[in-house]
Amino acid sequence: MTRGRGDVASTVAAEWARSRPRTAAATALVLADPASHLARALEESGHAVTRWHRFLSRGQQCTAWPPPGPFGEVWVRMPRSSLEAAMLLHAAAARIGDGAPVFLFGAGNEGIRSAAKHFPAGTGEVETVLTKRRCRVLAAARDAPPPREDGLDSWQTRVPIDWGTGPRAWTFYPGVFAHGRLDPATALLIDCLPPVPPGARILDFGAGSGPLAAAALERGGGDAEAVLLDHDAISLAAAARNVPTGERVLARGLGAVPGPFDLIVSNPPIHAGGSQDLGAVEALVREAPRILARRGELIMVAQKRLPAGSLLARSFHRVRTVADRGPFRVWAAAVPREVPPMTG
Ligand SMILES: C[S@@+](CC[C@H](N)C(=O)[O-])C[C@H]1O[C@@H](n2cnc3c(N)ncnc32)[C@H](O)[C@@H]1O
Questions:
Q1: Which of 99, 102, 118, 125 is packed most tightly, with the most Cβ within 10 A?
Q2: Segments making up each domain of the chain, as ranges
Q3: What is the fold of 4-151?
Q4: So what's the pLDDT on residue 273?
Q5: Which CATH class is domain 156-336?
Q6: How far is CA 170 from the centre of its chain?
Q7: Which residues of the chain have pLDDT under 50?
Q8: Is 235 a pocket residue for ligand 1 (Cβ < 6 Å)?
Q9: What is the DSSP letter of 196?
């Protein structure tokens, strides 16, 4: 995933990395920067650079937690939520020795101006070392280990979630969709799930923490199977806790999952990098016919202002509205028009 605004922040951080006096730090870890400008600048100034991403992106390794290090310095790209920022800064401080720096960089519209408060106890005074093009680079040196134990599980939140069949303890991690609650669109789709026949195979596209797969399995006759696909390794770590019997697939498209599936469920992503992007929904609707069983069905929920119905009608003969509630609509589609070739 490349975020345009991320590119500017990465460029500004790269400028700072190039302009500072050469240091003895030979290794650098860059966390969650989708752009490559900073990593390149660090390499050019003699650092061995390791990059870590939670989101799958072409040609980049992606895991649920950064490699242990230690590193000479760590750079953190400002993530989407405050909790995620705190988590990444903790992880950063756990990967350097005392006296080594943690840098946080990002754009004004991502909250970088008030981000100093996310540095963990055990880092010294946070200094703004560069402000440019509405982006900032903040720096603080570690003077003691951070308070939380290193690891994703230190950031686990468990809350009761109930979709009408009784509360269950549900695991979230920072940055996972609908952190701490059941999303209303997801809840609407769950209300519309059909009974699932015994032995059915279910695909949850954009599974997040896994509520759709879990609810569909609940509707199943006992030996139904679920595959949970997401491009976020941390979401899949939550799904592993919440739907332990499900198979998890870290991928961006349906090319990674061989069919046939009797049911595909999705509350699909409609944003990328903060702006509306229907690319993933279009790909889902276009490619679902290839992996659906002959009598299979795709059931998805989206905001009713989106052209999901007409998209579905391009790929399926039978498209019906199953529910309308508030701003959301659930569609069910069956009987593919034609099976498209595989596109990866
Ligand atoms: C609207 S959320 C729904 C999450 C979950 N199904 C729920 O209802 O709580 C969409 C999910 O799609 C994932 N996602 C976004 N783009 C994706 C892509 N290109 N391929 C696979 N998953 C993607 C996100 O990480 C997120 O978990």
A1: 102
A2: 4-151, 156-336
A3: Rossmann fold (3.40.50)
A4: 74
A5: alpha beta
A6: 17
A7: 1-3, 5
A8: yes
A9: B
